[in-house]
Amino acid sequence: MRSKVFARGIVGAAAMAGVLTLAERATGADYDYGGPSPNFIPAPHQDKVEFASGWYVRGDLAYAAETFPKLSSNYTVDPSISPAFAFDPSSSVLNTFSAGAGMGYKVNNWFRTDLVLDYRSTVQAGWNGPSITCTTGLTTLPSGQVVVSAQDTCTSHFNTEIHRWDLLANGYVDIGSWGGFTPYVGVGAGVTWAQTKQSVNWTMSNNLPYQITTDGFYFNLDRSLGQMNYQFAWAVMAGVAIAMTEQAQLDVGYRFLDLGNVSGISSATGASVTQKVFVNELRAGVRYMLD
Questions:
Q1: Rounded to an integer, what distance in angstroms lies between the CA atom of residue 111 and that of residue 168?
Q2: In angstroms, rounded to a whole number, what is the distance separating the alpha carbons of residues 54 and 179?
Q3: What is the pTM of this model?
């Protein structure tokens, strides 16, 4: 009898355990506190990217006074061979302008840097050079000999154009900000390059171009040449930035530039001459923060 009661107790306990197990499974289907289900796939994590944080663009205009060699018309060499610079012994001051654009990065409230490309106004000079006796007619004699039958006075006309650019990497220290005014100082270094175009053209006494074809001969004394020169350049600057909006600032300042050497010939001796080009600029522009 006792064995039957014990057996019934075992069976009842097993049945109760089974019921509890089923209940737990049913409850887990609705309220799962044990972690994600086997079929759960988490969404990929995407870091927030702030585009162009600290970056800015800028545009500038400048008026400049340049210490540049004075171009002279007093040639002592034959201009029909090749045109060239002729420099007076003293330098002259050119009033020029430049326009620039660049992009920079503000590292913190005290330091920033940028890369700026400037186009400088063209240096141009033209004048009338020496005159020579030129052949305008040839005659072939019955013997076959060719003799000069006509001559004229021909005058040379020189023209020089120098197109210039400079690319500088700059660093600035912003001293502080007071009421929207931020003074700064800076230095820069880079490269300047110049494309030089020179020509000499000849005209006769009637002001027509000297290009005569006669008796099978062709005469043309016109000459031209072009070259590109590169020089190291450096600058120091100081100015003040004036806040216009939260992202835009008016930048007004002074810049001194050393644009390297320019070479030509002496108008007095014809010897080669090299002189420095210095620039004093008053600049104004706008800086705009991209973020």
A1: 17
A2: 21
A3: 0.71
pLDDT band per the 50, 70, 90 thresholds, residue 16? very low
Q: Is 230 helix (H, G, I), strand (E, B) or coil?
A: strand
Q: Is the pLDDT of residue 29 over 60?
A: no
pLDDT value, residue 73: 57
Our CA angle for 233, 253, 108, nearest 5°, is 85
State how far the alpha carbon of 202 is from the alpha carbons of 11, 123, 154, in Å: 127, 22, 6
CA gap 262, 85 in Å, rounded: 10
For residue 31, what is the DSSP state?
-
| Cα-based distances in Å from 110 to 105, 114, 229 | 12, 14, 37
Handedness of CA 67, 68, 69, 72 (dihedral sign): negative
Question: Where does the pLDDT of residue 50 fall: very low under 50, low under 70, confident under 90, or very high at 90 and above?
Answer: very low
Largest CA distance in the chain: 163
Residue type, 91: S
Question: For residue 162, which of 114, 228, 220, 100 has the smallest C-alpha distance?
Answer: 228
* Domains, in order of start, for the chain: 56-289 (2.40.160.20)
- Which of 194, 202, 122 has its CA nearest to residue 158? 202
> In this structure, what token pair is assigned to residue 22?
């089923």
Nearest CA-CA partner of 115 in 178, 189, 185 = 189
Cα gap 235→280, rounded to integer Å: 10
d(CA 52, CA 50) in angstroms, rounded, equals: 7
